[in-house]
Write a structure and sequence with these properties.
catalytic activity; Endonuclease/exonuclease/phosphatase domain-containing protein; Endo/exonu/phosph_ase_sf; Deoxyribonuclease I, Chain A; 3 domains; six-stranded mixed sheet; Endo/exonuclease/phosphatase; alpha+beta; about 500 residues
Length: about 500
């Protein structure tokens, strides 16, 4: 049998003969010592704000980079807090083009994604194959936000099952679902009901949820051939539906789908950690303020005799150091809703013209909208190319004007994934040194490419099939395009 050891005592206490009395004294002693949560250590370095509402934007990005770039301007124009998106732009297996100051969570197939700024600290639920969900606090109550997508070429039951699993996990909590399920039903504006729409409506009814789409709302999908649809659905729990304002925006999205704005009129608390400007001076003031209180801080730590007193003193010293930094440095402004620097007034003007063409095309769709539709599609294609060229030229100008090769442009491109190369003077023995003289390079090339082979390559000429289908001159084997051959 397990032997019970002697009762534990705090330092400075005498052992009691009565075990029960000793335990009671231990409990009273622990109550006298204040228990400080770990969160209070950084209370003075955290800024908490109350937002009267939360704006959620829903959009299908159509897998295009132009729609993703245009999304950045919509965030600033409408002051969006959370984005529910489907079919984002994916490059090399990762979702690209989203704002760098925003966090993103995607489903396993990367067809549903949720974006949120860094001042929102949600609880991320386990992503499903066709859906993803996060949990935030609205009016001091948890609320789950779900993004889902189902392709018209796939079975909708798999996506509906993922949504049903999320609803079962939250167990009666509020939720908002933004999904592109490609289903047709009378309840959200279609003139007929499809089997997919019937399955979606059955899920909404079985969960006792509320459909936020209205029957008189304009279509949320415009195909280039002139057909319209309402595949984008917004669903919420019944208690939360009365606090949501749902509408379709008229902005140009550079996608076939339109923006859907959901404004939740409930308080939401945001937490932001303060950052100090240490690059532009203030160090002398910091040393002066620190010397004035250093002795008192050291004395406070030396007087501790127990672990609990040391934790309390450490918290107080930490808070005093934060106050000293606030007196010495300025606080950085964290702009979460910052427009892209490459977006010019010319692009904004072209975008407004395109919106006018789209409205004209919608008015003439019933009568003779073929000409207006053709003009709209042509101008939309031109604007996409212009956005791409403007973004590329702005990035090229930004890199050209930077004097430091590892400056802001290097950090923006690689972030923390790549580090500058070590210079030749700082290299250790055994490492490669690429700053070699010309003779070393010649010997290195001759080692891997024999001189006879290089002479053959030097005089080799390509035979083109015809003058009209001539290949790019960059494929020629000559000294101009291969400078390494000049070393031989």
């Amino acid at each position: 049998m397990h032997k019970q050891g002697p009762p534990r005592h705090l330092p400075g206490q005498t052992e009691s003969k009565n075990p029960a009395l000793g335990k009671n004294r231990d409990k009273e002693a622990r109550k006298e010592i204040p228990q400080i949560p770990q969160i209070e250590i950084l209370t003075k370095c955290v800024t908490q704000q109350q937002s009267p509402s939360t704006k959620i934007l829903q959009i299908n990005l159509q897998k295009t980079i132009s729609a993703t770039d245009n999304l950045k301007t919509a965030i600033v124009d409408h002051k969006i807090d959370i984005i529910i998106a489907q079919e984002p732009y994916v490059y090399n297996g990762t979702i690209s083009g989203t704002p760098q100051s925003w966090a993103k969570w995607s489903s396993k197939n990367k067809k549903a994604v949720i974006l949120a700024p860094l001042n929102i600290s949600p609880v991320v639920l386990t992503p499903k194959e066709n859906a993803v969900a996060i949990k935030i606090n609205l009016n001091k109550k948890p609320c789950t936000i779900v993004s889902a997508y189902s392709s018209p070429l796939e079975e909708v039951e798999h996506t509906l099952q993922d949504i049903q699993d999320y609803i079962n996990e939250i167990q009666g909590e509020d939720y908002i679902i933004g999904a592109d399920l490609n289903g047709q039903h009378y309840n959200w504006g279609y003139s007929y009901t499809s089997p997919r729409g019937r399955a979606i409506d059955h899920l909404i009814g079985s969960c006792r949820a509320m459909l936020l789409n209205t029957e008189d709302a304009p279509p949320s999908f415009y195909h280039p051939n002139g057909t319209v649809g309402r595949p984008d659905l917004s669903v919420s729990s019944a208690p939360l539906a009365s606090n949501i304002e749902w509408k379709i925006l008229k902005d140009e999205t550079m996608s076939d789908h339109k923006y859907i704005l959901m404004n939740i009129t409930l308080n939401r608390q945001t937490t932001t950690f303060q950052r100090f400007k240490t690059k532009y001076g203030g160090h002398r003031k910091l040393r002066h303020n620190l010397n004035l209180q250093s002795q008192a801080l050291i004395t406070k730590l030396k007087e501790c005799t127990t672990k609990e007193e040391l934790e309390t003193a450490f918290t107080e010293v930490h808070q005093d150091l934060i106050d000293i930094c606030k007196k010495s440095y300025k606080i950085k402004k964290q702009e979460l809703l910052k427009p892209p620097t490459w977006w010019t007034p010319t692009l904004e003007t072209e975008k407004k013209k395109l919106c006018a063409l789209r409205r004209r095309e919608q008015r003439q769709a019933r009568s003779n909208g073929t000409t207006a539709r053709t003009i709209y599609n042509r101008e939309k294609s031109k604007l996409r190319k212009k956005i791409k060229r403007t973004k590329t030229s702005a990035w090229q100008k930004f890199c050209t004007e930077e004097t430091n090769p590892y400056g802001r442009h290097y950090k923006a491109a690689f972030r923390k994934g790549s580090f500058p190369q070590i210079s030749s003077s700082n290299k250790q023995e055994g490492e490669r040194n690429w700053n070699l003289p010309q003779q070393s390079w010649t010997a290195y090339i001759q080692q891997w490419i024999p001189l006879q082979q290089t002479s053959q390559i030097r005089h080799q000429s390509l035979i083109y099939p015809s003058p009209t289908k001539r290949k790019s001159p960059s494929l020629r084997w000559n000294r101009q395009y291969y400078p390494a051959a000049n070393l031989l």
